[in-house]
Amino acid sequence: MNRPELLAPAGDLERLKWAIDYGADAVYLGGKEFSLRSNAKNFSLEEIKEGCEYAHERNKKVYVTVNILFHENDTNGLIEYLKHLEECKVDAIISSDLFILDLIKKEKINIEFHLSTQKSSLNSEAVKFYLKNGVKRVVLARECSLEDMKSIKIRTNADMEVFIHGAMCMGYSGRCTLSNYFTNRDSNRGACAQICRWVFDLYDGDEKVSNETKFSFAPKDQQLLLYIKELMEIGVNSFKIEGRMKSVYYLATILSVYRKVIDGILDGTYKYDPLDEIILRRCANRESLPQYVKEFPGVNEQYYMDREEKTNQDFLGVVLGYDKETKEIILEERNYFSVGDKINIFGPGNRSIFLDVKYIKNEDGNLVENANHPREVLRIPCTTEVSVNDLIRVDFIN
Amino acid sequence: MNKFYITNPSDIDRYINLDVSGFIFGIEKFSSEFNSYLSLDEISLMCDKCKNNNKDIIIFLNRLYFESEIDELRETIKELSKLNVIIGFTDDSVLNILDEIGFKGESMLIANHLGTNSYTLDFYLNRGVKNAYISTEITIDEINEINNHTNSNIFIKGYGYLNMATSSRKLLTNYFMFINKNKDKNSYTFKDFVTSKEFKIVEEYNSNFYTGDVYNSIEFIDKLDNLNIILDNYMIDEEVFYKEVNNFINHNISEGNYTGFLDKKTVYKVEDYE
Predict the structure, then answer these.
(1) Is the pLDDT of residue A383 over 70?
(2) Residue of A nearest to B142 (CA)
(3) Which of A28, A138, B99, B111 is a Cys-bridge partner for A63, taking CB atoms 3.0 to 4.6 Å apart?
(4) How many angstroms away from the CA of B269 is the closest CA of chain A?
């Protein structure tokens, strides 16, 4: 069984580094131009270069999304931009506009082209067409089932990337312009207003059909934790996590779980652990399900009431250092916790320790009962040494 | 000078002597967004009739196809390729199959929302696709720039409901199941609370979202010169449609119609609002 790539989103340079440290084999990111998710911070060219250096020093890869759907006048500066990406040693671009294939060939720009999921590749004949024309990897549509993927792999032997976790579009990617019609914000150029998260009244002629349950078409998230082994057996080359706008905590948590599962399958030590699913579910604000892999999503794969999205305060802090003399963790707080609370500290390589908070010291060295000032630097006792950038969360396990 | 193409008229004899250049049909199983679909045999009969009247026939393979459909799609395309029709496609699988079977006829990219620049059309043109049906989310200026910058034969929508989105989910079936009511039909409307604007949702093979208003570009017809204009009767009363077709042919210009994005540019980045 081949080792698949675990591919993580990186909304900015900080998150790129966290993603790599927490087990990603590759990251994808957007530049300031030509990229969807225009509300993410995104990367300057200098930051892309720094990100590539950071990744390549650790034998990891960087892909840059050039995935807007270009309007006629949007291409100004595109050739120069692609040349800059080549100079930064970006490993590939992810794009759905096929003219870029011809452009990089004509301009002799040495950069791989990965076909974005925006193109909605669902079948082997389409994939064959893309491979013939120079596409190096196809990001399959999220609508593909395991059977579809298997057949596509057998018929094309394509390098295939598959989304395994995160938010989903209601429609076929690239084929939804509700945002354009409702808000004039162009969904295919990075300004999607997520109309699929709105609620509406439904009518049959003049008769209102919807009652207190408003009409909605908001999908729940996708989670393929239980299908990782099957995906590896099919020969999927890259497992992609969605979410360039997500937090460091989200990224580290999701990556830690999938890293452990993939490595466990590869070395034969993997055993299903229900805790993994709990961890994945708790760090997201929406319910996550397998969606299309086994059967078409039905009534349970959507939300119908007003946003049933929950936030949680599991993420308690980031480890800034460890004082070996006092055996204290120095941390920056994120969410409220108190003396007596049970916490879990986890870090790259599946390091994980559990402890009770015996005391909390504030920045002045005074003992306090509660940590209730986000970003405050605090100390708590711990006999086990922890590392910078380990994360602290609520112990929802014990 | 515009050329007009009519989708799937229920009575072709009514239109065949009008100054229209051709007809567009959907085929059973592999097309969507038509009032009805033809079998291969019916398409063959229609070809004879259109050939005698010097009209084009375009078959719209305007869906995305799942892997399980590909083998049957290939056989259908083989049969279609024997007829004198232009084969329109949304899914690039069709182009690959046409290439593999050595198709010598004309094809058309049905780009839907994705046809927003001339460079993409040139990509397909360089691979033998001479015709392209482009996006309805671009302005008149953008349409004309695209037309000026490519040798591709450009088709635009002139009349009909505009597709806003397509989902493979059964969104109506799911909702009715959730609220425990019977779904009596496949087409409903939904309203936005803020604007009270009305939109359509239709569940057939996919769930498709449409504008509530019928798009009608006739007031801009003089600015859309040298383009092929598709007049689409999907979900439109046949008498109303027939009248509108004649309005286009005779340049009976009316104002105050819903004109989509023809004179309204979409925002690229949110800060562009400021």
Answers:
(1) yes
(2) A72
(3) A28
(4) 6
State yes or no: pLDDT of B129 exceeds 80.
Answer: yes
Distance from CA of A76 to the nearest CA of B (A): 13
The proportion of chain B whose per-residue pLDDT surpasses 70, expressed as a percent, equals 97
Show the 3-state SS of chain B: CCEEEEECCCCHHHCCCCCCCEEEEEECCCCCCCCCCECHHHHHHHHHHHHHCCCEEEEEECCCCCHHHHHHHHHHHHHHCCCCCEEEECCHHHHHHHHHCCCCCCEEEECHHHCCCHHHHHHHHCCCCCEEECCCCCCHHHHHHHHHHCCCEEEEEEEECCEEEEECCCHHHHHHHHCCCCCCCCEEEEECCCCCCEEEEEECCCEEEEECCCEECHHHHHHCCCCEEEECCCCCCHHHHHHHHHHHHCCCCCCCCECCCCCCCCECCHHHHC
Query: For residue A189, which residues of chain B lie inside 8 Å, CB to CB?
Result: 266, 268-269
- Class of the CATH domain delimited by A315-394: mainly beta
pLDDT of residue B273: 46
> How does pLDDT run across B50-64, given as a tens digit for each residue?
988 999 999 999 999
Give the CATH fold of the A5-304 domain.
Answer: TIM Barrel (3.20.20)
Q: Which residue has the tokens 């301009």?
A: A107
Q: How far apart are CA B79 and CA B75, in angstroms?
A: 6
pLDDT for B37 equals 97
What ipTM was assigned to the predicted interfaces of this complex?
0.96
Best mutation target among A36, A101, A180, A216 (most B Cβ atoms within 10 Å) is A180
Q: What is the pLDDT of residue A39?
A: 60
> What angle, 0 to 180 degrees and rounded to 10, lies between the N-to-C axes of helices A45-57 and A13-21?
10
The residues spanned by each domain of chain A are 5-304, 315-394
> What pLDDT is recorded for position A193?
87
- Closest residue in A to B138 (Cα–Cα): A71
Q: Output the pTM of the full model.
A: 0.95
Q: Do A185 and B113 touch (CB under 8 A)?
A: no
* Residues 6 or more apart whose Cβ sits within 8 Å of residue A129: B92, B93, B95, B96, B99
Rounded Cα distance between B197 and B191, Å, is 6
Which chain B residue lies closest to A302 (C-alpha atoms)? B174
- Residues 6 or more apart whose Cβ sits within 8 Å of residue A213: A304, A305, B178, B179
Q: How far is CA B241 from CA B134, B160, B208, B217, B236, in A?
A: 22, 9, 21, 14, 6
**Tokens standing for residue A17:** 């580094």
What distance in Å separates the CA atoms of residue A396 and residue A1, rounded to the nearest whole number? 34
Q: What is the pLDDT of residue B274?
A: 39
Which pair of tokens denotes residue B119? 């460079």
Q: What's the confidence (pLDDT) of residue B144?
A: 97
- Taking only the tens place, the pLDDT of each residue in B218-244 is 999 999 989 999 999 999 999 999 999
For the record, the structure tokens of A309 come out as: 């999205």
Min Cα–Cα distance to chain A from B16, Å: 33
pLDDT of residue B271: 53
